[in-house]
């Protein structure tokens, strides 16, 4: 049965599904590539190379620091929307959890003896951060920004929730990492971001929807490159 308030038409298809659902179906291969990457599978099956994990840790700390201004710019965009202000509160909550995420990285880095001050950003990371920086422009429409925000968060949520699924052999040292993004609360938060994105996309022009889809695809590609970089393949 169709979920009330979630009706969205996609490109003349006769069934009505939310835009984000249509995107995932259309780009399933790439979506799975980002959320079921060999690096993630190796954490789940316990075969992970800890040197790759340490590389990911250092690079992701840099990424998260660049992610904050992008989220802040999305917060500004949401504050200009004529809604009930609830989007703004959700995004503000997201900013607060990014603060926790930064502190988590610092703690993990010290546990794994990774010196965050000496990490040199790698090419895939630089490109991803540049992409985010370009999206902070006030010219970028709110539906595009919120779709990107959701996509970035959901890749980690799905990836690490997959690690935690039954039958996993996650090394004890990485259990906390998987729980950080794979926990139920983070899942609910991503679901809320997705609902906000779908609501915005439902009201957006075809031109803006297609810009948002291109940006969504870029996120998936950058995420795959980021995992590849972590295992030394980029
Ligand atoms: C590359 C990447 N993508 C997503 C997330 C989740 N905030 C992250 N920390 N890093």
From TrEMBL:
Chain residues that bind substrate: 60, 101, 153
Keywords from the named record: Disulfide bond, Hydrolase, Thiamine biosynthesis
A GO CC term assigned to this protein in UniProt: cytosol
Gene Ontology biological process: thiamine biosynthetic process
TM regions (residue ranges): none
Active site location: 223
UniProt GO molecular function: thiaminase activity
One Pfam family linked to the record: TENA_THI-4
Stretch forming the signal peptide: none
Family, as annotated: Belongs to the thiaminase-2 family.
Protein name: aminopyrimidine aminohydrolase
Classification of source organism: Eukaryota, Viridiplantae, Streptophyta, Embryophyta, Tracheophyta
């Amino acid at each position: 049965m169709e979920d009330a308030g979630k009706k969205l038409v996609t490109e003349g298809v006769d069934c009505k599904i939310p835009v984000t659902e249509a995107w995932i179906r259309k780009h399933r291969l790439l979506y799975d590539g980002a959320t079921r990457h060999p690096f993630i599978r190796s954490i789940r099956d316990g075969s992970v190379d800890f040197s790759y994990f340490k590389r990911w840790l250092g690079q992701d700390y840099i990424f998260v620091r660049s992610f904050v201004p992008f989220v802040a710019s999305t917060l500004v965009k949401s504050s200009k929307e004529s809604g009930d202000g609830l989007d703004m509160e959700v995004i503000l909550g997201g900013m607060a959890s990014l603060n926790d995420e930064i502190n988590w990285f610092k703690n993990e880095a010290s546990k794994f003896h990774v010196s965050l001050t000496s990490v040199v950003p790698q090419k895939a990371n630089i490109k991803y951060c540049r992409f985010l920086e370009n999206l902070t422009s006030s010219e970028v429409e709110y539906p595009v920004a919120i779709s990107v925000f959701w996509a970035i968060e959901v890749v980690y949520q799905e990836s690490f929730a997959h690690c935690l699924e039954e039958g996993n052999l996650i090394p004890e040292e990485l259990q906390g990492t998987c729980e950080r993004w794979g926990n139920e609360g983070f899942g609910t938060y991503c679901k809320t971001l997705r609902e906000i994105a779908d609501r915005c996309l439902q009201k957006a022009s075809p031109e803006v929807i297609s810009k948002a889809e291109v940006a969504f695809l870029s996120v998936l590609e950058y995420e795959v490159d980021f995992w590849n970089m972590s295992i030394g393949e980029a």
